[in-house]
């Protein structure tokens, strides 16, 4: 069974919820037999440690599409899945699934099937209109209760995002759930990492971190989401994620100025007065 095809086909047949922004949540995506097979194939944390620092507590660590392609000694089981989730056929099904939301938020985009499609980190962004990407991801073991990401917006150039979970059967920790938020105001600026202040939003959907669960959303100026706090655990939070990144921003938000930027502005202002 091709995991990429199965994820794409199952997602495309799901029911898209349009509020507070277009999204879909799915449980028991694969048969139990198929899921068990792919869960066993998910790379252990030792493999991630060969390529990344995994010693920090509860941080996101990913293995990229080019690494999967270039390291068949480590990721041969995943090559076909990654190629499928970054294919033109996959993109076509995803934009068809989100067609209503795309029409609502991005009517100026026109016929997306005419775009030049490539793979992120493989093809040149100067020769493509959209780059499809895929990662094997973990959030590292937790040494003190914390959130890997609070409420935030994703890359302004991403069109859609999806995550499929591979929770370890022995992981009995609490938290790590995917939270969908609704904005209560548009009068705010984004903080570090495109973060959104809790006073500006309210949680409306919480998707449990359970194996064989999937969540996907159309990335818009309303698509605030985050991850609930995880309790102390020696287990990593495991998932595969895939998205589509356009060659231009789809929306904009003003950002809060950091203290460093304030200091820089003040230095320039004082310099002008002294001149």
Overall description:
The chain is an alpha+beta fold and 275 residues long. The chain has a single domain (3-274), classed as Jelly Rolls (Sandwich), CATH 2.60.120. The chain has helices at residues 3-12, 32-41, 45-51, 65-70, 72-75, 79-85, 88-97, 99-105, 259-274, and strands at residues 23-26, 60-63, 117-119, 130-139, 158-165, 178-183, 201-207, 214-218, 225-227, 237-246. Strands 1, 2, 3, 4, 5, 8 and 10 form a seven-stranded mixed β-sheet that branches. The chain has a three-stranded antiparallel β-sheet with strand order 7-6-9, with no helix packed on it. The longest helix has 16 residues, at 259-274. It starts with a helix and ends with a helix. The model has no long low-confidence stretch (mean pLDDT 92).
Largest sheet: 7 strands, mixed
Along the chain, the helix and strand elements come as HEHHEHHHHHEEEEEEEEH
How many structural domains in the coordinates? Answer: 1
Low-pLDDT runs: none
Shape: globular
Mean model confidence by pLDDT = 92
Number of strands: 10
CATH T-level topology: Jelly Rolls
CATH architecture: Sandwich
Structural class: alpha+beta
Our measurement of the CA-to-CA distance between the termini, rounded to an integer number of angstroms, reads 71 Å
**Class in CATH?**
Mainly Beta
Strand percentage lies at 15-25%
- The helicity comes to 25-40%
Radius of gyration: 20 Å
Helix tally equals: 9
